[in-house]
Amino acid sequence: MKNSLAQVFKSGKFLVGFSIIVAIVLAIIVYPLLVPGNPLEMIGVGTFFKPGTYISAYDAVNSRSFYTLNLTDAAAKRVASKLSDADREVMLEWFTLFFEENPGDVDLEEMDINDTQTLVTLWWETYDPSIRFDSMTSAKRKYIARVDAQLEGILEDADVIIAAENDDGTLSQSSVILGTDYVNVSDIASVRILPLGTDNFGRDVLKQMISACRTSLLIGLIAGTIATLIGLVLGLLSGYVGGIVDDVIMFVTNLFTVIPSFVLLILISFSIGQEQRGARVVAVVIGVTSWVWTTRSVRAQVVSLRNRDHVNLSKLSGHSLVRILIMDILPYIASYVIMAFILQVCSGILAEAQLSMLGLGPKTTQVPTLGLMMYWAMAYAAHINGAWWAYFPIVILIAIISFSLNLMNTGLDQVFNPQLRD
User: Fold this and answer.
1) Alpha carbon 414 to chain centroid distance?
2) Beta 52-55 vs 191-194: how paired, if at all?
3) Superfamily the domain 2-42+201-416 falls into
4) Do 174 and 164 form a contact (C-beta atoms < 8 A)?
């Protein structure tokens, strides 16, 4: 046993896959301790907040300490942030059409649209809302008009005045925030870091993804255990007993082979109903529909072992069927069973993701899963809205889990399969 474990952990592929799984499990354990709370809590009033650090504007304005920093590029950055890349492109498009009809000494090819001051100054010198270009659509003209409206006062660097209401209802100046005033983030009471932003319901994606990974792994473990146990028991009985028992078991196995397991999985999940489909129920359903190939593989292994000398000796000694299967056959196929279990866990995780993408996964109000997060992201068009953080990390995590489990399986196969052993 010790020699086998030593060989397993000398396999580079197994070690890499095992290390990835251990890292994921550690993240699942540690992260909820650092960021406690309900992963399904809706913290964002809106949808798809982009990743970043969010500070309370109220606390920032009312901070006890303001620091003066004379940064030379602060005003330029402040002005540049008021125009998006799309705004700059549409302004350049207007300039191009304008100077085609009114040639001047402006060289648009050498113009830097990221130079906000030059861009805005030229805009004020040339833009006329009464000018209509035939090649420009009405929607584009309205967009340009909105851009022009927001350019008013864009180059001004005025101080921000904070007003307070008096007893008579009038407002009076209470304080002024200068352009050089800064607040240290540690002085702000309310700060929230959202490394992966929020989803369509305003929920922390990273926090939800950690919880979903734990649930998906649990589903995979339950489904893999059930499928492996069913396949192991049926395969042992079919391969060792033979006769009518073998015929009946293989008839049922072939019947389930003809019917695609995923189609059967869809039908069973649909018949259960949304309210009864918890994570464990889905795991059980996946497990009882995924045992077929394990049964056939175990049977093939047992058939090659049932006439070995040590098995015949146990028969002559009068040992029971259960003892022969457990003591004389199972140890010889244990490595294969472990590899089958790893693949079943991987298949269970992927099956849950597929079911959830079809809306047939676990109940959406109980716990998140990786499949449910993908379903929510696609249902609310995250890919169309450009909210990559709502689905892309989920795809990567599922791929990493599948890759690591298959890598572990390949490493075990190289250790225990004589044909692949170096």
Assistant:
1) 31
2) antiparallel
3) MetI-like (1.10.3720.10)
4) yes
pLDDT tens per residue, range 199-208: 989 999 999 9
8 Å CB contact between 407 and 13: yes
CB 44 within 8 A of CB 198: yes
Contact 115, 76 (CB under 8 A): no
β-pair partners for 194 = 52
Torsion-angle region of 64 (φ positive above 0: left; ψ -120 to 50: alpha; else: beta): alpha
Q: Is 181 exposed, middle or buried (0-12, 13-18, 19+ CB in 10 A)?
A: middle
pLDDT tens sequence across 139-190: 888 888 888 888 877 777 778 888 888 888 788 888 888 888 899 988 898 9
Task: Give φ, ψ of 94 to 5 degrees.
Answer: -65, -45
N-term to C-term CA, the chain: 20
The domain segmentation of the chain, as residue ranges, is: 2-42+201-416, 83-150
Fill in the amino acid letter for 345.
Answer: V
